[in-house]
Amino acid sequence: MPTGRCHCGAIRYTMRGEPVHNALCHCSDCRRHAGAPMVGWAMVPADQVTIEGEPTVYHSSEHGRRHFCGRCGTGLFYVNERMLPGMIDVQTGTLDDPASLPPQAHIQVAERIAWMADAHDLPRFERYPG
Questions:
Q1: What is the pLDDT of residue 11?
Q2: CA atoms within a 13 Å half-sphere pointing along the CA-CB vector of 111
Q3: 3-5, strands of its sheet edge to edge
Q4: Considering the entire predicted model, what is its pTM?
Q5: Which of 99, 75, 96, 100 is nearest to 4 (CA)?
Q6: Residue 25, number of CB atoms within 10 A of its CB
Q7: Can you tell me the distance from the alpha carbon of 9 to that of 36, in angstroms, rounded to the nearest whole number?
């Protein structure tokens, strides 16, 4: 069972079962909320996620609710009962072992930052450039 947590450890979670959807999202809402060019999400039925701790909830749109740690600010979950009833999206970058749940698709690429299309061609360094 995948487990994860926020940066400070105040909020921990466990996911049971297989994700219904697992993708990298390029929408502007996800980018702005995470401060990142894209965000990894795994969608599962909400009753298959156990959360320890109390996330802060931000109403990011009329029906969208983004859950994050109020202490350290880590984004954790997304819920939209109107569009995705009974489901919860978990930010896969917060998993204890993110490599165990690789994404299966890119979504919302209509809003992708143009340079992300070629990001895989950039030089690579194990740590910082020397």
A1: 98
A2: 14
A3: 3-5, 12-15, 49-52
A4: 0.90
A5: 96
A6: 23
A7: 21
> 22 forms bridges with which residues in the sheet?
42
What confidence tier does 90 reach under pLDDT thresholds 50, 70, 90? very high
Q: CA-CA distance, 42 to 4, in Å (whole number)?
A: 12
pLDDT digits (tens, 9 = 90+) for 29-66: 999 999 999 999 999 999 999 999 999 999 988 898 99
The bridge status of strand 3-5 relative to strand 12-15 is: antiparallel
Q: What is the dihedral of CA 59, 60, 64, 67, to 10 degrees?
A: -70
Residue 75: strand, helix, or coil: strand
Please return the burial class of 52, using the count of CB atoms within 10 Å of its CB with bins 0-12, 13-18 and 19+.
Answer: exposed
DSSP code of residue 116: G
